[in-house]
Design goal:
12% strand; single chain; six-stranded parallel β-sheet; alpha/beta; 219 residues; 53% helix
């Protein structure tokens, strides 16, 4: 029996092509589509899918943070990342957020099918070319000095605000999107800059891109 799937990707053609593959070739049902992370949250709340295929580099709320939100609310929801990024930081953060699979956008249909099967049976699936990269990174990250990185000092809300600031949104716009007071956003911004020891929005933007919070040039 086919799965109920939500597709989250900011490219219309990518969503259309993926919908065709999922419905025509794999016989699943796409019950919702989203062009950014916040829309993905809304679609899951409305459509109650079995699986979300989640892009990472999306505006407003990236796929990593959207995944964190969804897994907190729906711990049994299956999420597969589908991205152009092979950088290990993206892979690790997506898995830490709760995704059970990570595929690249040039994956073959057969690999998509295998990933869905693995994830639905409670297993984790990584694109074949990522396995060695992730293992090597795991060995590196067990060093004690990695435990107190600046990224780990940021809360989930901090990371949301970092992304929106890096994408050029004003404090007022951020306050409206996150249902916060403008003064609260300003306070968050000051605390974030202090935590990261940064002095400007330009430096914050570079940091956000480096840590995978946003790609600005969205994939």
């Amino acid at each position: 029996m086919g799965l109920r799937i939500v597709i989250a990707d900011d490219h219309t053609l990518m969503r259309a092509g993926l919908r065709s593959l999922l419905e025509r070739d794999l016989h699943h049902t796409v019950v919702g589509e989203a062009s950014n992370g916040r829309e993905a949250l809304e679609q899951v709340n409305v459509c109650h899918p079995d699986l979300v295929v989640m892009d990472i580099g999306m505006p407003e709320l990236n796929g990593i943070e959207a995944t964190r939100h969804l897994i907190e609310e729906y711990p049994n929801l299956k999420i597969i990342a589908l991205s152009i990024h092979t950088d290990v930081d993206y892979v690790v953060e997506m898995l830490k957020a709760g995704a059970r699979g990570y595929l690249l956008k040039d994956s073959a249909l057969e690999e998509l099918q295998l990933a869905i099967q693995c994830v639905c049976y409670g297993q984790t699936y990584l694109a074949q070319q990522l396995a060695t990269i992730v293992y090597d990174d795991y060995v590196r990250r067990v060093a004690p000095q990695q435990q107190d990185s600046a990224y780990n000092l940021l809360s989930q809300r901090d990371r949301e605000i970092v992304q929106l600031l890096a994408e050029g949104h004003t404090s007022k716009e951020i306050a409206e999107r996150l249902s916060l007071a403008v003064s609260s956003v300003e306070t968050y911004r000051s605390h974030i800059m202090a935590k990261l020891n940064l002095r400007s929005i330009a430096a914050l933007t570079k940091y956000a891109i480096r840590e995978g919070i946003t790609s600005i040039d969205i994939d």
